[in-house]
Amino acid sequence: MAVEAGSPDGMRARIAALLATVGDRMGLPIRGSCLCGAVTYECVAPPVWTGNCHCRACQKLSGAPYVSAFSAPAGSFSSSGETRQFSRTSDAGHLVTTTHCAACGGRMFAQSAGNPSMVNVFAATLLDPSSFTPISNVYLSEAASWAEPPPAALNFKRMPERAKSPSVGPTAAP
Ligand SMILES: [Zn+2]
Ligand SMILES: [Zn+2]
Q1: Whole-model pTM?
Q2: Cα 112 to ligand 2 centroid, rounded to whole Å
């Protein structure tokens, strides 16, 4: 069946192809840790989304112009070590809880009540960050004027509409 470029099916196929390459490079399990090493995590499934988020919440929470992250099925993700949580309400009205290391404060991962089956993991915490590839930029409308967004295959002014890719993609800013 021919898939029309720009159609929801076409977008889904494109995202799937991009993510297959990303997953191959990252390998399994995906492992990461905070700066002090007290919190570690492991993910036994490949990412279902990767991107750079330029939203103001990510900027404020990280102190950086944007944050790179990947989404993975929550059931495939586990962490150990003492953590602290911070919750806020996203643009979509969902409670988003970010988990930090209790000792060094490093921002490790986040979950949205709007999509609790997914966990968004901050890619700079990866043990091998060079294995990571962001396929998207999101919230470009809020990007810092002094930091050029890195090149990515897909670019969104805000968050992509879930209706366009119901099985993949984030539902809230990480
Ligand atoms: Zn730590
Ligand atoms: Zn964000």
Answers
A1: 0.89
A2: 12
